[in-house]
């Protein structure tokens, strides 16, 4: 073999090694990019979440109650936010019982506590607890999700 054929073989080998390194790096980069894209959140907008269910409200007539100390009067109007229409139907059917429970609750309140925001929030929690027990044995509990004040006057 002559020197020129030996040089050609060396040149071919010296070209193949960097070329194989470049092809390997390109394949690794493509695989890495594909893996990264597969684990990304889809860029297409997600389906909109379903709208929240329509709220179920039950407005009660206003209450006028003498508080523990006879010279103080509470005038309060409330609206109940309920879980479902079945609860609204039960409360509507047994409305005198619900009003009686609330009148007793309101008459036990202290005027100095009701004058503060925390006192009003505590009254909301007490209203939920008062209405929650079954109105008649054998019926489910009333699920009141929120109590909204529509009127609140303390004299």
Helix content: 40-55%
Spatial gap, N to C terminus = 118 Å
Number of continuous helical runs: 5
Major beta-sheet overview: 4 strands, antiparallel
Can you give keywords for this protein?
four-stranded antiparallel sheet, 5 helices, rod-shaped
Question: Can you put this structure into words, describing what you see?
Answer:
With 155 residues, the protein is α+β, with helices and mostly antiparallel strands. It has helices at 3-38, 85-93, 95-107, 111-114, 117-131, and strands at residues 56-59, 63-66, 73-82, 144-154. It starts with a helix and ends with a strand. 50% of the residues lie in helices and 19% in strands. The protein has a domain at 56-154: Tetrahydropterin Synthase, Chain A, CATH 3.30.479.30. It is rod-shaped, with a radius of gyration of 37 Å. It contains five helices and four strands. Strands 1, 2, 3 and 4 form a four-stranded antiparallel beta sheet that branches. Helix 3 (95-107) runs antiparallel to helix 5. The mean pLDDT is 87. The longest helix is centred in the N-terminal third of the chain and has 36 residues, at 3-38.
